[in-house]
Every structure is written in C-alpha cells, then in structure tokens.
Amino acid sequence: MFIVFAVAYGGISCTQPTTSELGSERDDDDRDDDDDNRRTRTCSDRDSCQDTCDDLFSYTTERYGCYDLDPSEVNVISKVSDELERNLVRSNELEDIDADDFRAYLEIGMESFIDLVRGVPVGDSAKDNNRAQWNTNANVVTNSTTVMEWIAEEENIAEVILEQDRDFELGLELFQALAVDVTFDPPITNAVLVGTGVCVDFLVGNRFDIGDSLSSSDCASPKELLDLSHFNGMSGVSKFLSGFLLAQISGDSFMTFSADERNDTAFEWGHNTLLEFCKEATDEDEGDVEVKTCLQTAYCVHRSIETGGITSDGIFKDLDDHDGVVGRTDVDHCDDLDDEDRMEDLFD
Predict the structure, then answer these.
(1) Using CA atoms, how far apart are residues 57 and 109, in angstroms rounded to an integer?
(2) DSSP state letter for 195
(3) How far is CA 152 from the centre of its chain?
(4) Which residue ranges of the chain lie beneath pLDDT 50?
(5) Residue 235's pLDDT is what?
(6) What angle do CA 270, 96, 129 make, to 5 degrees?
C-alpha cells in the first residue's frame, strides 16, 4: 500500500515554474494585447488621418464614416479622390483605379462626389484655399465627359456605379453636367421631329431647339403633351435632356456608346437614370402613362438625332437588345406620342 502511494505521489510534480517561463507567458500576453490594439486602431486615433478625411469629404456623416476606417483604407480612398478631384481628370489615370477602391470611395463619399460634379468645392482644403477642382463650367463638362466615357468602357466600374447610385442622383447630375447649349423660343408644346433638328414638346411653355435649320413655324401647332416642370424647373429639364440626347462620348451619346462597348450595366444605369428623370419631371410613378410617354418621347428624339431624321431603328435596336431592363417599346410609336392607349402598353 505504501509503495503504491509513493509511486503515485512521485508522479505528481510540485516544481514551481521558473521566472523565465513566467516572463515568456507575459510576453505572449503583451504581444496579443499589442496585436489587438493594432487591429482596433482607426483613423480617429490620429489627428493627421482625421485631417485627411476632412479634406476628402464635405459632410459630417461622410467624415465620421471616414474616421471609422483603418488608416490604410483612408489612404486607398484618398488616392481615388486625388484622381477624381483633379482640375482636369485624366482618362489614363482613371483606368488604373481598381473597382473595389472606387466602391470604397463612393460608399463613404457619394454626396461629396456629386458636389464635385456640380462644381462645388469639396473638403476643407478646397474651400479654405479656393483650390481648383471642377469649379469652372468648362472643367465640369470636360471632366464629366471623361468620367462618363470611363463608366461606359469599364463594366466593372459601371457595376459599382449602378450599385452605389441607388437614387440615380449622380446620374442625373452627370447628364446635366454634359449639357451643350440649347436655345429657347416662344412656347411650343407639340412634338415635331424635323430632319436633323427637333422641336421637343417636353418643355411645355418653352422651345427646346436642336439644330440650326428650324424656325418657329416648324413647331407651330401647340398641343400639350407633357408638363415636366417638377424637375428642377425648365432649365434643369433642358440640361438633362441635352446631356442625355446630345452629349458626345467619343462621338456618340452615352447610351449608344455603352451599347457599342457591349456594356450592359452602363446601358442599364443610363436607362434607369432617364426613368428617374421622367418620374421626377412628371411627379408620377413608374407605371403611369406620363412616365411612359416621357421615356418614349426621349428615345424617339434620340433616334431622330442619331439617324439625322432618316427612318431607321437607331436606338430602338439597342433597346430591343436590352428588353429585360427597358421593357417593351416600339419605334413605330414615335408617331403616337399623344395616344395614351398606345403609351400605356409600352415599357412593361
């Protein structure tokens, strides 16, 4: 019995841990704590990083979102911002922007980017020092054209835009920024598609004149079709339509260029932006006949400009190819814009 007890007792070590062993355990714990601290460190821990956020964005919510990022993430979106905020944006530099980095920038700073497109100074440095960004009309047009071409050429960038531009506010601003000069004459409300020129009945109380060959007599039969006064007044309507219909992206409208690039996502974003314009401009819902008439009229005018008044499918061929996004439409209905029964059947 004693022998068994002694053997069993002898198998239990009563040796105390050495100081070096304890020190090693403490070092491991300290290293773990340091790693945890490094992992949880955010931009808000550094004044210099917060200053960077303040220079990147204009709005409090954006800045606090930036403060919550890791400093390395702030560095990434800062590089994206540097390219987008240039006085003249460079297309070759945009091509080097990674889509995930662009998404990270928009997730924080969409409103500031929209301000940039509007020609408003963005961030403390620009506001305090009047630093040049897109703050002249020429820069806004040139840079917006460069950005739109980038979106139309790069489907992964278009995917980010479609994902992040949830209310199509950026799209509405970019198309308005592309606007070329339009002239206004006494009131006309009847749609007349004449040769290479177009009198557009969108603008009740105004004349939207495309081309130099038209006179007032070309649009002489007033007949109310649409009142689009709900969208930023008449000037906003004319700017958007001018940008959507006339702006040249490598020689084409944005929609035609996107279709030529086989960029389905960019085409979808462009159409949905037009849809949002029509909803806002008519103050109606997507399925209402006023919105459908607005869409159909826009594409009929687009086709007339694109084909120089020659009878052909024009943009409607691309619309047919994107039926899943656009819905059913018909080039033949360009002569029936005031027929509500026909318009009701479109874009379903």
Answers:
(1) 6
(2) T
(3) 12
(4) 1-22, 26, 32-37, 182-198, 201-214, 222
(5) 73
(6) 85
> Per DSSP, what are the bridge partners of residue 183?
209
Alpha carbons 213 and 223: distance in angstroms, whole number: 22
75's CB contacts (< 8 A; 6+ apart) are: none
Sheet holding 192-194, edge to edge: 192-194, 197-199, 209-210
Strand, helix or coil for residue 154: coil
Provide the sign of the torsion angle of the four alpha carbons 337, 340, 346, 348, taken in this order: positive
- Tokens standing for 9? 């007792």
Report the sign of the C-alpha dihedral through residues 105, 106, 109, 115, in that order.
positive
Q: How far apart are CA 10 and CA 6, in angstroms?
A: 6
The two tokens of residue 20 are: 């070096």
Beta-carbon contacts of 348 under 8 Å, excluding residues fewer than 6 positions away, are: 287, 327, 328
220: CB partners within 8 A, 6+ apart: 188
C-alpha span between 192 and 334 (Å, rounded): 10
Beta bridge partners of 192: 199
Q: Are the C-beta atoms of 105 and 77 separated by less than 8 Å? A: yes
